[in-house]
């Protein structure tokens, strides 16, 4: 990523045009900003980068001038302040970098303003209309999470969640009203981010063709795909509760042959959703191998590689010498979505009758305890 210092972004005597896509002056505890970006087309996140500032002044361009990026800027605390760094990481300065548009940031983390070209002015105008509701969403979301963490009464948590939903719906209504009135503006595509998940597709359909097929159209469609996947995942989660039939599937093995879940019926099955790219998955392989060796006469272990290429998947199986059945997920069938997988690794235990026993997300030692208890 091209990173440069801009000595005269604001208040400069010369009339030279600001050459940077994103620039500004921010009050910060140090002379460094941490920078993270996500390409809206590929979904690939950049590595955490550092951006030097001088008296709070900075400027930079995105690596691909034809793509919209979601950008997070984190004012780095003074050296050694770990608590402040953690807090800053959870509350970054957020914006989207749009080709042909220039953003100017001022203020400080937690109280910043984004101005610049027409796109950012339009977006600021609408966001100011639901600022009050957004504040409620942030507060109620934090409150609900804290209550859940303390294990408080489910009824009380539901009341907070219901109030949260009301504020989110108000924001969605304001965004939809703007989109309907301004179908030719780029900001309308950006506002789909604030529209309720189940209404995102219909809001997109309100946009004029020029916006739908422009750079902001691709960004909006990425938001819609994520929302629709979340909806599908919630629907799938209802169907994979303990005691329910495990969803059936057929996937390719290492030799390109079809392998069906039904062919293993009659014994316990462990589905291991993993990927060659997943650090926690790789870290857990020794424990998986030990469990496999201990139970392989009673349990069929089945690895399902997700978000992987065939080449990297096969290379990882060979490198780590994985002895159990190995399959690769099919994007069309999307078995990970069938099983509402929301993190990797995830494991699903299925009983000999083909019913779900337990779904475990993450590299959790609890999985091995549950399996051991089942097979006593």
Q: Given the helix and strand composition, which structural class is it? A: alpha+beta
Instruction: Tell me the fraction of residues in β-strands, as a range.
Output: 15-25%
N→C terminal distance:
56 Å
Helix content percent band: 25-40%
**Physical arrangement of strands within the biggest beta sheet:** 11-10-14-13-12-15-16
Number of DSSP strands?
A: 16
Question: Ranges with pLDDT <50 over ≥5 residues?
Answer: 1-16
Radius of gyration: 24 Å
Number of helices: 13
**Order of helical and strand elements:** EEEEEEHEEEHHHHHHHEEEHHEHEHEEH
User: What is the molecular shape?
Assistant: globular
Largest sheet: 7 strands, mixed
Summarize the structure.
This protein has 376 residues and is an alpha+beta fold.
Summarize the topology.
Layout: E1 3-4, E2 22-27, E3 32-39, E4 49-52, E5 57-60, E6 69-75, H1 82-89, E7 93-97, E8 103-108, E9 111-116, H2 118-129, H3 131-149, H4 154-181, H5 186-190, H6 200-205, H7 209-212, H8 215-238, E10 250-253, E11 258-260, E12 268-274, H9 279-283, H10 285-295, E13 299-305, H11 310-319, E14 325-328, H12 335-338, E15 346-350, E16 356-361, H13 366-374
Helix pairs in contact: 3-4
Task: Describe the protein.
- With 376 residues, this protein is α+β, with helices and mostly antiparallel strands.
- It contains 13 helices and 16 strands.
- It has helices at 82-89, 118-129, 131-149, 154-181, 186-190, 200-205, 209-212, 215-238, 279-283, 285-295, 310-319, 335-338, 366-374; strands at 3-4, 22-27, 32-39, 49-52, 57-60, 69-75, 93-97, 103-108, 111-116, 250-253, 258-260, 268-274, 299-305, 325-328, 346-350, 356-361.
- The strands form three sheets. The protein has a seven-stranded mixed sheet with strand order 11-10-14-13-12-15-16. It has a five-stranded mixed sheet with strand order 1-5-2-8-9.
- Helix 11 (310-319) links the parallel strand 13 and strand 14.
- Helix 3 packs antiparallel against helix 4 (154-181).
- The longest helix is centred in the middle third of the chain and has 28 residues, at 154-181.
- Residues 1-16 have low confidence and may be disordered.
